[in-house]
Specification:
With about 100 residues, the chain is mainly alpha-helical. It has two domains: about 40 residues, no CATH class; about 50 residues, no CATH class. Helix content is about 55%, strand content about 10%. The chain contains five helices and two strands. Strands 1-2 form a two-stranded parallel ribbon. The radius of gyration is 17 Å and the shape is globular. The protein starts with a helix and ends with a helix.
Amino acid sequence: MAKAKAAGRRLRKIWVDGGDKAGVVRWAQTELGYTLTVVARPPGSTGFAVLPRRWVVERSFAWLGRYRRLSKEYEALTATSEGMIWAAFGGTLLRRLVHRNVL
């Protein structure tokens, strides 16, 4: 989030897991001016519970897993892994745009 702020990016919606609510929410608000929304389990729930917006992250990880270079940790440098993630999401975005315009 700090890198995004330094790059001049404006983030509108940021969701965090319920376990991150202690210090991250306060830090993001005071240091960066971002408002984080905590996605927490419903009170009193036990076992599996479907959480709102959680599927977005899980779906994104599944899309990345379709690319062989990202299915395992092959890269020695994190910058190379980051580049592969950008390339994978770029390919996914292009594929979705082409299918949307063709149909």
